[in-house]
Design brief:
alpha+beta, Alpha-D-Glucose-1,6-Bisphosphate, Chain A, domain 4, eight-stranded antiparallel β-sheet, 8 strands, globular
Length: 179
């Protein structure tokens, strides 16, 4: 059995939902054992993004300006004209993904990094979004550890053993904030 076949997501954790009028933001926090500069490269370098993120980028996200992000794993290619709004290595990255705003904050935590993602999202997809990012972050963590298992995103993520459990756990964790 390959490392990828043996992969199963851990329990849901590190999530909250913020509501501002009709706008919903999913906030995910993950602690990684690598320094912010290493995590920054994984968030901005197109080659590393191809290993873990739910989108491909046509250029580095490490500088402000236009960028094309292509969603992976979808039946029809979904290409989004996007914009890197702020890129302050190795601590802050803000960009759009189509009409969604994403903000990544990297804080030193001992010899590692506390990674926080704010993702503006349709409230109907909060639990799925949380579960999808959870799996992407697990894949990112393995990539940074030097044990890549390959990207798991989109419909492929929904086939992972534990997907239903994970979305159920995120539904329960975020239910109170969706009222």
């Amino acid at each position: 059995m390959s490392k990828r076949d043996a992969y199963a997501p851990g329990p849901a954790a590190g999530v909250e939902v913020q509501k501002d009028g009709e706008k919903w933001t999913l906030v995910l926090v993950r602690e990684l054992r690598h320094p912010p500069a290493t995590v920054w490269r994984a968030l901005t370098d197109p080659e590393q993004l191809r290993e873990w993120a739910p989108f491909d980028a046509d250029r580095s996200l490490g500088a402000a300006g236009p960028v094309t992000l292509s969603t992976v794993g979808t039946p029809q290619p979904q290409v989004s004209a996007s914009t890197v709004k702020r890129a302050e290595a190795p601590r802050l990255l803000e960009h759009t993904w189509g009409d969604h705003d994403l903000r990544w904050e990297l804080e030193p935590l001992g010899s590692g990094t506390r990674l926080t993602l704010w993702h503006a999202i349709d409230r109907r997809y909060i639990a799925w979004g949380a579960a999808g990012w959870h799996i992407c972050f697990d894949v990112l963590d393995r990539l940074l550890e030097g044990e890549p298992i390959g990207r798991i995103a989109g419909p492929e993520a929904m086939k992972v053993e534990g997907w239903q459990r994970l979305t159920g756990e995120y539904t329960a964790l975020t239910r109170g904030s969706e009222e």
